[in-house]
């Protein structure tokens, strides 16, 4: 039976080998074409960013529309993100800053969004991510902005307000928290460590299963995993990537309170994304402290039929009970309807900062 099975499999395996060779040849041709584009830009002294968010999004969307299966649209996106990353990396490796150390969810989001052919730049804080990108020590940064369970990441909101960086992309990541220890057992554990957001996302599970164990905050889940790798009395809440990175075992898997737990990340940098055909625009506004001001702020979007997908308020810290409003709109700021709505909005508000327009992640 085994011999008969091998005979049945052999022609299909040979077919796969032949197709793989063709794919490899085509990938090399694509890479060479990308290098030629780089040479042309250099010849014309075109000071152009190696990263083109709108062009990359258009390539993937076009291929998804052409796809007839059985490969899924999500698989097309995953494969071509890596193809684009590999070709981009032949010209210049993109330096990507994120909250580290290695194994963090921020790193996972960064690599999923920009591909693995980048130069990772792990940082100790969100502030450092923004600072390194602002001064040019990293090309782009990836930071969490909101979680489906715990809401906004306030430090990211504050940094978006107070720095010059633009939003150039978004990535939504499913968050699966695990309790990690050196041995895979909780017998020696005296402390559970994680980023405050992760502790909050696992609050009910921890209260039910380990109410007696002290909980301590860490700068990131990956940092908690690093500490746990050196201290058998510490259990870390982190993803499986952190377990692999720091040689830890899973004591309990999937401990997040919400099974559908997701975090939305934003890619930030010093470039502006052009229209891709399926975009989102983020902005921050503040309104005068008078009756009806918030209603007037929202009216231009209804008037120009611009959909708003997110509205978040954050205290302005002036001591006057004033707030900044963080908004996401469907459409690029260069599209006529969005442009008209933004022009009308600026007449109604006391402050308006457009954070950027960027391709939507469907």
Automatic annotation (TrEMBL):
EC numbers for this chain: 4.2.1.51, 5.4.99.5
Pfam families: ACT, CM_2, PDT
Entry keyword annotation includes Cytoplasm: yes
Database matches in InterPro entries: ACT-like_dom_sf, ACT_dom, Chor_mutase/pphenate_deHydtase, Chorismate_II_sf, CM_dom_sf, CM_II_prokaryot, G/b/e-P-prot_chorismate_mutase, Preph_deHydtase
Compartments reported by the entry: Cytoplasm
Chain ranges of the Prephenate dehydratase domain: 95-270
Biochemical pathway: Metabolic intermediate biosynthesis; prephenate biosynthesis; prephenate from chorismate: step 1/1; Amino-acid biosynthesis; L-phenylalanine biosynthesis; phenylpyruvate from prephenate: step 1/1
Domain ACT: 282-359
Catalytic activity: prephenate + H(+) = 3-phenylpyruvate + CO2 + H2O; chorismate = prephenate
Domain annotation Chorismate mutase: ranges: 3-95
Sorted UniProt keywords: Amino-acid biosynthesis, Aromatic amino acid biosynthesis, Cytoplasm, Isomerase, Lyase, Multifunctional enzyme, Phenylalanine biosynthesis
Job description of the protein: Catalyzes the Claisen rearrangement of chorismate to prephenate and the decarboxylation/dehydration of prephenate to phenylpyruvate.
PANTHER family: PREPHENATE DEHYDRATASE P PROTEIN, PREPHENATE DEHYDRATASE-RELATED
Protein name: Bifunctional chorismate mutase/prephenate dehydratase
């Amino acid at each position: 039976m085994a011999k008969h099975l091998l005979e049945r499999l052999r022609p299909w395996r040979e077919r796969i080998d032949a197709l793989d060779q063709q794919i490899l040849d085509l990938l090399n041709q694509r890479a060479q074409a990308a290098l030629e584009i780089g040479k042309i830009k250099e010849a014309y002294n075109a000071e152009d960013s190696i990263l083109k968010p709108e062009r990359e999004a258009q390539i993937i969307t076009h291929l998804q529309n052409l796809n007839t299966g059985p490969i899924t649209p999500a698989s097309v996106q995953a494969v071509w993100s890596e193809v684009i990353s590999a070709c981009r990396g032949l010209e210049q490796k993109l330096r990507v800053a994120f909250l580290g150390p290695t194994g963090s969810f921020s790193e996972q989001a960064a690599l999923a969004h920009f591909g693995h052919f980048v130069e990772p730049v792990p940082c100790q804080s969100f502030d450092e991510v923004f600072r390194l990108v602002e001064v040019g020590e990293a090309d782009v940064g990836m930071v969490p902005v909101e979680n489906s369970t715990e809401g906004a990441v306030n430090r990211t909101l504050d940094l978006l307000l107070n720095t010059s960086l633009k939003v150039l992309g978004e990535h939504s990541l499913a968050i699966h928290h695990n309790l990690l220890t050196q041995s895979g057992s909780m017998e020696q554990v005296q402390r559970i460590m994680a980023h405050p957001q992760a502790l909050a996302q696992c609050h009910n599970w921890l209260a039910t299963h380990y109410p007696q164990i002290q909980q301590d905050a860490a700068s990131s889940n990956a940092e908690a995993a690093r500490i746990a790798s050196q201290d058998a009395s510490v259990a870390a809440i982190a993803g499986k990537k952190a377990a692999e990175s720091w040689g830890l075992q899973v004591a309990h898997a999937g401990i997040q309170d919400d099974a559908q737990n997701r975090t939305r990340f934003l890619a930030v940098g010093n470039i502006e994304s052009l229209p891709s055909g399926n975009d989102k625009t983020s902005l921050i506004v503040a309104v005068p402290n008078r009756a009806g001001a918030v209603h007037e702020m929202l009216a231009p979007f209804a008037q120009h039929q611009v959909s708003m997908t997110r509205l978040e308020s954050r205290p302005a810290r002036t001591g006057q009970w004033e707030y900044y409003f963080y908004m996401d709109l469907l459409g690029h700021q260069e599209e006529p309807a969005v442009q008209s709505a933004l022009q009308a909005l600026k007449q109604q508000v006391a402050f308006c900062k457009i954070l950027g327009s960027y391709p939507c992640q469907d």
